[in-house]
Prior knowledge:
The chain has 304 residues and is of the alpha/beta class. It contains 14 helices and six strands.
Amino acid sequence: MDSNGKVFVIQGPTASGKTSLAIELAQKLKTEIISADSRQFYREMTIGTAKPSDLELSQVKHHFIHSHSINSELSASQYAQEAKPILDQLLKEKGSAVIVGGSGMFIDALTLGLDEIPHDKEIQSKWNALFETEGLEFLQNELLRLDPAYYSKVDTMNSVRLIRALEVIEITGKPFSSLRKGEVKNDYNIHRFGISWNREDLYQRIDQRVDLMIEAGLFDEAKSLFHQRKLRALNTVGYAEFFRYWENEFDFNEAIEKIKQHTRNYAKRQLTWLKRYDQLGELTPYSESSLINQLAEAANLISH
Length: 304
């Protein structure tokens, strides 16, 4: 099985089945998994972030699960700095590595490198203050007005990314989208795969997953974090809606419907992100051949 120096990336929408496929692949390759889900890093958030189960975590070593605290949020560039030595070590020692997650910006930061985009602490602080006083919708409207191209791609529920884009627009006087060239700065041998569900089936899986999260205790998990709700890491689908329920903006059933709706919206943005890649192996869950066999064949991992 020739996997030497290969980085296998499994990405795409939430609830598509990335975790179990990544575990099967890592076992096949006798390597480890680097998680690239920008919310699974945080120890305090488990149910709502659909982390791998204890059983799944015991099957293959995972990096960047339960690794950080919501009190010190991890940016894409910090993640890349911390994850790159691990990735390089895995390639050296194991001959391959598996990266899995739905956070395209974090995956790109690690595997492709980041564009050199300016930063100004004072301007960033100004936008942070505006977020505190005016709220998320204000940031969304400003970004839509100033850079509709980036607005159509970004996770509009993520205040950090909105603030970053608005900061850069103010510094440069140019749309943030025009500065994100996506030039490759890291030279990894990347094999990228996604699991292609029909939209209707994917949305059904998302709704079922939310119901399972509620059964598993998401309500109580969110309640335990309510006092820290101003932290940006907690401005996350599954938590933000319950926070608004406790602030009397939604009733309970409405909060659950909003979680499902916002998760479907997020999945749609994740699918849009995939369109930027020239090479993406699409695996179909409707085939008689298993996902792992489809992937192995596509990546020439099967010895003939």
